[in-house]
Amino acid sequence: MADPVALIQLVSEQTMQNVVPVLAIKPARLIHLYTPSTASRTCDITKALGLAQTVPAETILHPLAVMPTIVETAAATAEAIRSARAAGERPLVNLTGGTKLMSIGAFDAARTEGASSVYVDTGRQQFIDGGTGEPIESVLGPDLTFTPIKKRLKVNVIAVANGLERVTSTKKWSKYVALARHLLNTPRDEDSCWRAMREGVVGPTGEPRTWTGWIDLSRTPFDLPDSVAQHAAAAGLVEAIGKQWRLPTLDEKALRQAAAREQQQQRKLNGALPKDQRVNVTNEVRNLRQELASLIADVQLSLNLLSGSWLEVALADVAKESGHFEDLHWSARTGGRGWGEEEEQDLIAVQGAQLALFSCKRGGARAKLPSEMEIIQTRARFVGGALTRRYLCVGRMTPDAALRRALQRRAAELGIRLITAQMLRERVPFWEAPSEA
Asked: d(Cα 225, Cα 183) in Å, to the nearest integer?
């Protein structure tokens, strides 16, 4: 019977290189060498492994200096190797992570002690033998790719490994695919649909500013192209009203009552309240707003889908069919790190061993795509770290050639892939790295 493995790892800001080998090797013990700046990452790794149901029996934390030298890291690694052997375990050193000096020190110790070592290539999704001891095939088997563990690389696991607390409230998109495909392939119908929603139902003042304002909006009749109406009705997004259509019927009584209670509690908050009562009232207001949001959810979903969010569904459909993305989440909410309320993400998935974050914009003359790119950058780092794959999907790209080239240049500078509706229609492999000229 093979000796249990003790996996010795260098911890840095990027954590997937520490999570992936644990999923593949299932070591009996983890020994983490970390600096003060990466101390919290050891907790993130442990939480992610818990979600993946692969928690070693023991994790030992070995602190290093703020800027550890080659000699210090080599000494700490050698100590970990010897302690593993003394415990009857086989030491395996993960050379990925930490600073370059730390990696050199870990490699030097593994070579001196004759311990096996591994490099985790998350970009190519494979393990590489470090050449310092017995080949890693004796631990991992002949397949050194990530293929055996791909099903365990979920969005939640990667997000939590990068410091996020949760990814929740994913919506199902399958029943909206037929509508999304039609609007993707029929731009004229899509334009008519958008005008019916944004210029007809919503009007120049925008979405209602009060909860009860959604009642009038849901009662407003509108026209739709016949083919769009058929798909929308089949998906439960619209209801017939004579020869026209309306958004789903609201529970008007429940909405008015909840709105009245919310206003009443809000008036209490605006007055003078003892601290303990203020906390209770604040919680009551929060709960009532969640109740109100759920009461208008169907109407809001229909409005959004018919006026642009269909593009998110079309993108999810193509991404899933491609086979290059796993665990796709549409309209998921990400929260944690003390950033306050959760943020809704258009589409988030696993691509390789990293997260892929998608933002979708209908586009048009008023689209603020350059600022959207900056938002994507911030969100991507927050959700999945610096290595998150970033995509911006635009339904109607500007006809201005100079502006289009400027957008493409800026996207390339930021490492964002631009996806157009035409690319989705033609199934262009937007997930592949662009070829260099």
From this structure: 11
